[in-house]
Amino acid sequence: MMPKRTFVEVENLFRDLLCDILELPIDNKQIVFSYQATGVPGWKHDQDKLFIRLNELDDEYSKFRSSLYYPNEETVIKSTSRTRVWEVYLIAYGPHACDVQNQIKDGVFLQKARRFYFKNDIALVTDYPQALRVPELFNGRWWERWDMRLRFNELYVVTEDVGSIEDVQIFVNEPKEE
C-alpha cells in the first residue's frame, strides 16, 4: 500500500510513466508540465514538446470510502481508502506530435506500463484514448498540435490512530417471565 501522495508527486509519477513509454531520460526537456512555476517554456518550430496537465475529476467512483481497523500493540489503526480519479491531458507540439501521441496511446497498454501501474497503485481506465489534431496559430505561424486525454484511478489511503477501548461496562438484562 502506497502512502498518500501530494499533487506534485502524482504529476511526477505520470511524467515518469510517459518518460518510460517514450524511452526518454527522466531529466529530458521534451516533457514538461503545463503550468510551470518559473521560466517561459520555449521551443523551436521543428522540436517536439509534450505538455502534461493533470486534474482530479469529480467521478462517481471517487465518492466511495472504505474503512478497516487494525490492532497495533496497544492501539487501533483506522485505514480509510478511496479512489482518486485523475485526468492526464497531453498536449503534443512539433513535427512528430501525432507519432508521440500514438506511441503513448499504445504504450499505456504495454506490459511495462501495467507493471508501473501495479507498483504505484494506479489503474488505467481503459477507454481507448483518441488523439485529436488541433493546429495552433502562434506568432503568425501554424504549429502542429495533437491533444489526448487519459484517465487513471489511484488508490488513496489515509491512516489514523483511533486509540483503543480502555474500559467497557457490560449490563446483562434478565429475560422477563411471562
From TrEMBL:
Residue ranges of every copy of the Phage neck terminator protein gp12-like domain listed in the record: 10-170
InterPro entries the UniProt entry points to: Gp12-like
Pfam family, one: Phage_tail_terminator_9
Protein name according to UniProt: Phage neck terminator protein gp12-like domain-containing protein
Organism of provenance: Veillonella ratti
